[in-house]
Structure formats: structure tokens, C-alpha cells
Amino acid sequence: MSVLVVVECDNGEVKKSSLEVASYGSQVAQMLGTTATAVAVGEATEANLAKLGEQGISKVLYDAEPRLKDFVNGAYTKLIAGAAEKESSLVIVLANSNIGASVGSRLSVRLQASLATNVVELPKNNGGQFTVKRGAFSGKAFADVVLMGERKILAVKKNSIEALHNAGQVAQVERFSASLTDADFVDAPKQVVMQDQAGGVLLPEADLVVSGGRGMKGPENWHLIEDLAKALGAATACSKPVSDVDWRPHHEHVGQTGITVSPNLYIACGISGAIQHLAGVNSSKVIVVINKDPEAPFFKAADYGIVGDVFEVLPKLTQAIKELN
Amino acid sequence: MKFLVCISNVPDTTTKITFTPDNKEFNKAGVQFVINPWDEYALTRAIELKEAQGAGTVTVLNVGEADTEPNIRKALAIGADDAIRVNAAPKDAYFVAQQIAAVAKEGAYDVILMGKESIDYNGFQVHGMVGEMLGIPTVAPAMKLDMSGSTATLEREIEGGKEIVEVSAPFVASCQQPMCEPRIPNMRGIMTARTKPLKVVEAVGEGARTEVAEFALPPKKQGVKLIPAESAGELIRLLRNEAKVI
Ligand SMILES: Cc1cc2nc3c(=O)[nH]c(=O)nc-3n(C[C@H](O)[C@H](O)[C@H](O)COP(=O)(O)OP(=O)(O)OC[C@H]3O[C@@H](n4cnc5c(N)ncnc54)[C@H](O)[C@@H]3O)c2cc1C
Ligand SMILES: Cc1cc2nc3c(=O)[nH]c(=O)nc-3n(C[C@H](O)[C@H](O)[C@H](O)COP(=O)(O)OP(=O)(O)OC[C@H]3O[C@@H](n4cnc5c(N)ncnc54)[C@H](O)[C@@H]3O)c2cc1C
């Protein structure tokens, strides 16, 4: 009956968003009076998996099949379904990532479960009614959703809850085989191409984001964004028109038709704050806007603002950070 | 090849979201509905692939009530050959997926294209459910889709990169930029769309597995704290000591 948590790993490490998912799962387990078991996908090391004890996980199931290193929808689904059967899990928690939500939706059919993606809070379990809060209308609203099925699958949005750190707690790592065959790998990637990110911070996983809009005037000025991002340890992002004209790659485009980010800090430089842009960033904890137009709509959605020229302000900010460090 | 393109009918991206007084439903009053922006990539790419193959059909499918028909006609005007509407309110993703799977099976479609996600409910789940129901692969979200015979090569976006995936039809893919440049209807398209077939069928399968208890709007921001441009460095101090985010 334990709560099953799916943790995504990369280069041996558990992804930060999965530490949040593990913490979410162990708190749900506590609520339901049971334990939390994790199942690992991606490239993991047993030592790092054991550390999931700090997030409240009691046991980690790990299949060392080498082809599980890359995301394969069919194989991941079978592995997790197998783990859910073994643990008789009625609640499964994953990250609301492209991987987590893809697998979650297949699993929901296979296991006849109710599915909620984009979950932003711990569930409520009142009088047998299991309710979760999820984001809807592209960040413009929330919905409390009742999951009617006996089995429930939740995909938790990044940065929605704090990861627990109970120092010294260790999870027991157990080898687990889902008896995968070649047929489970028909959609295995032929090739995996990782982005070469300046400073090595990936946008979907980033806690801090520095973003540029048309006000940056051209790609030749992007070093100002990159310098600030580097000084902060932040990822870089951009508005839609900027990626449409190829000043920046498409994977940096945030907004209603790009990716949604929810970092602790989002710094918008020369972005007007159109409603479609705000939809992708308005769940950021703190928003800073730098724009020369005091009437720019973005200021209404901001916590801090500087009315000024990005070409003057950005170097000053980068300098101030360097002095602080 | 028979292409099936699934479109959802969503509030225009500029819509200010409000709810009915009991907060149980989205307030549709005065709202302009559009084809889900991601689904426009699916539609245009299906038409391009059909044209490149010089044969085949593109069918659009919507699960919705009669008020979605203007957007179904728009999809026909953009270049789909025919349309199917499953006459039912889209109660939840599972309900919608069952309808799509039933239509796909009945019509023996080779390629089922959807958008990355529906911008109203942001599920990112219908495509995975349909793939599982039909026992075929789903590639989501796909940034690129090329076909050679019945083999498709796709680029699937993953966090921090992409995977190159090859699958054979039948399969499901959910589409996003930069797959193609979405087309807009031209005059001739609009004229011919009027007479293209639009079939209405009734819903099948089980009911929904989830239900919205209540909608809520995000809490309002406190208001912006402005820092003079001359003392920009002060912002960094505030971010560290007051907001505690760096
Ligand atoms: C269906 C649809 C979907 C969309 N989806 C998205 C989306 O997902 N993401 C998205 O971003 N957009 C999206 N858009 C586009 C959106 O409506 C806006 O057009 C876009 O966000 C504007 O980008 P921008 O702020 O970079 O440019 P602009 O609106 O041109 O703003 C530039 C800003 O820079 C400021 N500026 C200029 N020079 C300086 C300077 N030297 N110093 C400081 N400030 C300066 C200006 O005052 C201005 O506010 C969508 C639109 C539609 C119709
Ligand atoms: C106010 C309001 C409340 C709603 N409440 C709920 C609710 O409580 N629970 C719920 O799950 N849904 C609800 N919906 C319905 C929702 O709009 C969807 O039609 C459906 O649930 C799938 O949404 P999704 O975000 O999960 O789709 P996604 O999985 O994000 O959609 C992916 C793709 O599936 C296809 N698709 C999605 N919906 C349809 C459709 N209707 N017809 C044809 N193709 C489609 C499109 O290609 C789309 O790009 C509500 C809609 C509104 C406007």
C-alpha cells in the first residue's frame, strides 16, 4: 500500500525536481499512514539513491537495465507499473516533466487510475474525497480537482513544495527487474542531443532565470543577459518574438506557447509583459522587471522593478553580484 | 496515409479568466474561442505531409458541443478534408481520450496528431492516454516530424535536450514549435470549408475519472517596489536580504 514515487536521475544524480517529488510522496504517505517507496529511472548510482532517505523515502527500487538510461516511454511505463503492482500502491507521484507526465498518462490507463498533472500543493483527503490543487488556464488560475478513482497518479509541478532534508536518513536500495524485453524499447531514442547551455544551468530545472525580450535589440547584446546569468548561476530565457527571429533558440522561449517556468527568481529584461508571456512565468516566486517604459504592463506583475535602460542597468547588476560574492 | 488531427476549442490567449459565482465553471460570457494554438502545428504539419505524399486524407476531430463548430470549420478552411465532432462536453482528459481512441480505431487512422497540451486545462495527457488505449507509441512533445513511407522520424523534447525517435505508423504525436509555420485560412479555403463533410457522432465509453470541485484565481501581487536605475546595485542587496532568493 506504500506511496510510489518516481525519481528521475541524470548522470548518476537524482534531479532536483525529483527530490521535491520524493518529499511530496513521503508527506502523502505520512498522511495516509503508510511508507513511501521510490522507483528510479535514468542513470542512477546506488549511493545517491540511498540518500533519498533524507526526503523521507524508505525503499528505492532500481532496475540496472542499461537501456533505461534514456527516456523510453514504453519501458518506463512497464517498469513503474511493475513497481506499483509489487508495492500495491494506490498513489503514484511523478514530476510534471515531459518524462513524468508522458509516463503518467500511459500509466493512468494501464492501472485504471485518476490522473492529475500540474499539481501545486499537497492533497487533501476529507471524508474519503481526495482533492488536489492544480494549475489551469496557463498559470492564470488554479483548480481543486477531485480524483474519483481508487488509484491516483499525481504529477507535481516543479518548485511547488520544499524538498525535505532529514540529514542522515538512509533509504534501502533494492534491485528490481521489470523483465523488460526488446518490445518495450520500440520507441527508444536513436540519438539523444543535450543542449549546450551557457553556464550549464538548464531552464526547466533552474531556480534563477534571466530572460530577455525585444528590448535587448539584437543577439549581439545577449552577452549582457549571459553575464548576469553566469554571475547568478541562472539559466537564460527569452520572449517568443526573440526566438521567432532566431536571436535565441526555441527551447528558451517561455510563455503560454513556450515552456512554463516557476523559478524562485525571474528577471525580465526588455520584455513588455504581454499576457501570453506572463502565463509562462507568473508562478515564479519573485519577479524583477527592467524596462525603460514605466507603463510596461510587466510592472503590474512584478515584485521589484527598475525603470531604466537595460544596456546601463544590466552591467551594474552583474557588477554588484560579483562584488557580493 | 490517413491523418487524424485532434483539436480542442479554447479561450483566446488574451482572455481574462473569470468563473461563475460558485467558482465551479469557467465563465464563457464574452469569451472568444480559438483552435488550441499547439493544435495548429499538428494540423498544418498533417496537411504538409499529405501534400508531400501526394495522397491521403486529413480528418479533424473535436470532442465538444455544437458551439465548437466554427473552429472545426476553420480547421477545414486551413486544409483538412473532413471533420468529426463527438457530441459531448469534454468532461476530463480520460473521457476525451476514450472518444479519440474510439474514432481512431473505427477509422483505422495511421497517424494521430495532437497539440502539446490544451491551454485551458493544461493536461499534457490526452496523447499518452490515447496511445496506451490503442497500444501504440506516443511521442510527446514533438518538435519535428518527418515521414518516409510509414516510418516517422521525430524530435522529442526532453528536459534539457532532445531525443531523435523513429516509430512506424500507427502512432500518436503531440506537436509544438518549431515543427512548422501554422497556416491561416485563405479565401478559397473558407469557401470550400462550408461544403466539406462534418460528421457528428455520440460519445462512447465510461465517464470521467476526475472532477473540478472549485476554480480559484492566483493571489494578487503586493505591488512593485521600484529601485532607481542609478542605484541598480541596491536591487541585488534586496534580493539577497529581503526576498532571500539569491
Ligand atoms: C497566440 C499567441 C501566443 C503567444 N505566446 C507567447 C509566448 O508563449 N511567449 C511570449 O513571450 N509571447 C507570446 N506571444 C506574443 C506576445 O503577445 C508579445 O507579442 C510578446 O511577448 C512580446 O515580446 P517582447 O516583450 O519581447 O517584445 P515587446 O512587446 O516589443 O516589448 C519590448 C519591451 O522592451 C522595452 N525596451 C525597449 N528598449 C529598451 C531598453 N533599451 N531598455 C529597457 N527596456 C527596453 C520596451 O519598453 C518594451 O516594453 C503570443 C502571442 C499570441 C498571439
Ligand atoms: C472551464 C473548463 C473546465 C474544464 N474542466 C475539466 C476538468 O475538470 N477536467 C478535465 O480533465 N478537463 C476539463 N476541461 C476540459 C478540457 O478542456 C479538455 O477538453 C480535456 O479535459 C482535455 O484537457 P487536457 O488539458 O487534459 O488536454 P491535453 O492533454 O493538454 O491535450 C492534448 C491534446 O489533446 C487534444 N485534445 C484535448 N482536448 C480535446 C478535445 N476536447 N477534442 C479533441 N481533441 C482534444 C488536443 O490535440 C490537445 O492539444 C475543462 C474545460 C474547461 C474550459
From TrEMBL, chain A:
Start and end residues of each Electron transfer flavoprotein alpha/beta-subunit N-terminal domain: 3-189
Record: residues binding FAD: R214, G270, I271, S272, G273, A274, I275, Q276, H277, N291
Entry's Gene Ontology molecular function annotations: electron transfer activity; flavin adenine dinucleotide binding
SUPFAM superfamilies hit by this protein: Adenine nucleotide alpha hydrolases-like, DHS-like NAD/FAD-binding domain
GO biological-process terms attached to the record: fatty acid beta-oxidation using acyl-CoA dehydrogenase
Any Pfam family the entry gives: ETF
Stored SMART domains: ETF (SM00893)
Requisite cofactors: FAD
Family: Belongs to the ETF alpha-subunit/FixB family.
Protein name per its UniProtKB record: Electron transfer flavoprotein subunit alpha/FixB family protein
Source species of the chain: Hymenobacter elongatus
Automatic annotation (TrEMBL), chain B:
Domain Electron transfer flavoprotein alpha/beta-subunit N-terminal residue range list: 23-210
Example of a GO MF term: electron transfer activity
Organism of this sequence: Hymenobacter elongatus
Keyword presence, Transport: yes
Family listed: Belongs to the ETF beta-subunit/FixA family.
Protein name in the entry: Electron transfer flavoprotein subunit beta
GO CC annotation terms, alphabetical: cytosol
Entry-linked Pfam families: ETF
InterPro entries reported in the protein's UniProt record: ETF_a/b_N, ETF_b, ETF_beta_N, Rossmann-like_a/b/a_fold
Gene3D superfamilies for this protein: HUPs
Superkingdom, taxonomy of origin: Bacteria
Keyword list, A-Z: Electron transport, Transport
